[in-house]
Design goal:
extended; 21 helices; 49% helix; four-stranded mixed β-sheet; single chain; alpha/beta; disordered N terminus; 612 residues
Length: 612
């Protein structure tokens, strides 16, 4: 809304801003005509200066031009519940004193740095003894900007020298947005140095500004404002529409808002929870850049929360009732290759996360956590040990200890982002005898001293085995084979020995019929190179070559048609200028996916033609 102030004397108009009137008047001052009834007398609010949010008004005119000057102590337009209570007192007479018309009208207010100062001021103005007066301090608080300046030390009891002030002030880090560096941060610094002689913090972390999924600034008139409570608890489209009725929007804006909500949230906003929302916000790029918040992304991380819960539930069910975790030194001696691999992944993940926290690179931290839980622990390690956990032998007991170690450490790693989920599981998880922490909030954060088991050479070999697993899955999917039979040929004895031990694991993860090592290239097989010294051979008897080849060629032709269509759009004149950025980004993503799929299908077709 454009705010325009028009003078009734000269007729001139002053454009103020395109923002809410209460915000504008709260932060600055405005000249008004001396005969404007609303501002004729500062005492015309019978319930005190705060209940009607009086603006900070100054009349800048002089009496010789028909104007006069007023001053107000402070702006009280925007307030916080933790703000400083307004030092204004309403004056009244105690019982038994003769009536005083000025006091009984409840319109007399005085200000003071304390009750006694205000009392003395009121007594002097009314020319009565102090014992006849009773003062009631205003319940409201001062403006945000004032309270923010004192917040770092006032919350710890300043000006009293409290234990909290000695312990917690100054702090180390302030997290805030770049748009209030001068409104909050600079004021905190100046007030801290002036009143305490010390800086209130050493570092300032500037977070991103949150926009909608399309990169637009959130606006009520666009209907794209995302209420965090709606993301946490969920809201139907009808609920979102109903809230528009309470906004001061004209009918055209309301209708535009309804259309915007229906386009962005046709099925409403799904319930995602606090932990998923917090984790999502921390996955976005580093400070200074805008965040295009997509509720679908938040829901994706809600599913991630479910995956963590299910992994923890599987772990608890796999542990016997009397399970007591073994010391790390005892556990490492009998670990299998996959046990050592997951512990190495845990060590590497822990190092990356701690490095990310040190540099405030939260996307690195969240990416490492997500990869460990999903790709390493759930998709690989859990699947590889499911069958062995059913036994009650030494091998199963070692795997249970390793699994418990990974879940315990994984919960502690993710607890800063997901405190509710991690605490709930942590309270159910068996503890080692040396673990006495009552809550995950005070449990030690994992570091490489606790988990020094990184083994780069082992990870490279397991990575090769997982590449073989992915090749088998891809062939089974593309060729329509439920379960294939495969052979691995490796001309490196050391690597071949590791792959031989991992053959059962690879067969389990790929869900193939059979997978074995062999010294010679088998006949009647479809070959694919995995590495310079390793190849995978799939038995052709499992493949209906003509049918599969026809189907893949049809899919490849369809993809190539899609690629040509996008390329034609991107080659148009003025494409960069005329096509919106979000559409161009969508085209880029489609192009990338189609190119990758086309290359994959092309390779599969070439393989079949060579083997035919």
């Amino acid at each position: 809304m454009m705010i325009i102030v028009k003078s009734s004397i000269s007729g001139n108009e002053i454009p103020m801003a395109t923002m809410r009137i209460e915000t504008m008047l709260g932060d600055t001052a405005i000249a008004v005509h001396p005969d404007y009834v609303r501002y004729m007398q500062p005492s015309d609010w019978p319930e005190g200066p705060t209940h009607h949010r009086r603006p900070n008004v100054t009349d800048y005119s002089q009496r010789n031009s028909g104007q006069r000057l007023w001053h107000r102590d402070w702006c009280i337009s925007r307030q916080l519940w933790w703000g400083h209570r307004i030092p204004a007192y309403r004056v009244s007479f105690r019982n038994g004193h003769p009536k005083n018309q000025k006091a009984d009208s409840h319109t007399m207010w005085v200000s003071g740095r304390c009750y006694q100062e205000a009392l003395e001021k009121a007594a002097a103005q009314l020319n009565v003894n102090e014992e006849h007066l009773e003062l009631t301090q205003d319940d409201d608080v001062l403006d945000t900007w004032f309270s923010s300046a004192l917040f770092p030390f006032a919350v710890h009891g300043w000006p009293s020298q409290t234990d909290d002030l000695d312990r917690f002030y100054p702090s180390t880090l302030l997290e805030t947005g770049h748009d209030i560096i001068f409104f909050w941060v600079a004021r905190m610094v100046m007030m801290g140095q002036k009143l305490t002689g010390r800086l209130p913090f050493k570092e300032v972390y500037l977070h991103s500004m949150v926009r909608d999924a399309h990169g637009r600034k959130m606006s009520k008139s666009l209907g794209n404002v995302i209420d965090p409570v709606d993301v946490i608890q969920g809201a139907s489209l009808e609920d979102l529409h109903a809230r528009l009725e309470g906004n001061l929007l004209d009918p055209a804006e309301k209708e535009r808002s309804r259309r915007g909500q229906a386009a962005d949230y046709p099925r409403g906003i799904p319930e995602c929870g606090t932990d998923a929302l917090r984790f999502t916000l921390c996955t976005y790029k580093a400070q200074g850049e805008d965040v295009n918040l997509d509720v679908n992304t938040v829901q994706t991380y809600r599913f991630f929360c479910n995956k963590i819960w299910n992994a923890a539930l599987f772990t608890l069910n796999a542990l016997p009732d009397n399970f007591e975790p073994s010391p790390m030194s005892e556990m490492l001696a009998d670990c299998s290759i996959m046990d050592r691999w997951i512990l190495s992944r845990l060590s590497d993940t822990t190092a990356k996360i701690n490095d990310g926290f040190q540099g405030y690179d939260f996307p690195i931290v969240t990416s490492a956590i997500h990869k460990f839980w999903v790709q390493n622990l759930c998709d690989v390690y859990l699947e590889s040990i499911k069958l062995s956990l059913r036994a009650d032998d030494h091998r199963a007991r070692v795997s249970r200890n390793v699994l418990h170690t990974c879940v315990d450490a994984g919960l502690r790693l993710i607890s800063p982002f997901m405190p509710y989920l991690s605490e709930e599981i942590f309270q159910r998880l068996p503890r080692r005898p040396e673990q006495e922490e009552p809550s995950i909030c005070v449990a030690p954060y994992p570091n490489t001293e606790e988990f020094p088991m990184f083994d780069g050479s082992l990870e490279e070999r397991v990575a090769l085995s997982l590449d073989i697993v992915n090749r088998i899955r891809s062939i089974q999917k593309e060729f329509g084979i439920p379960k294939l039979s495969g052979h691995i040929v490796c001309n490196n004895d050391d690597l071949g020995g590791v792959l031989s031990q991992l053959c059962p694991t690879m067969a389990t993860l790929s869900r193939c019929r059979m997978l074995q090592m062999t010294n010679q290239e088998p006949d009647r097989c479809l070959a694919t190179t995995v590495a310079s010294n390793c190849a995978l051979f799939v038995e052709m008897e499992d493949i209906d070559v003509p049918r599969v080849l026809e189907r893949l060629q049809a899919k490849l032709a369809k993809m190539n048609t899609g690629l040509k269509k996008i390329e034609a759009q991107r080659s148009m004149d003025s494409y960069e200028e005329k096509v919106p950025q979000n559409i161009r980004e969508k085209h880029d993503q489609q192009m990338e996916v189609l190119q990758a799929d086309s290359a994959r299908l092309g390779a599969a077709v070439a393989m079949l033609k060579m083997a035919r």
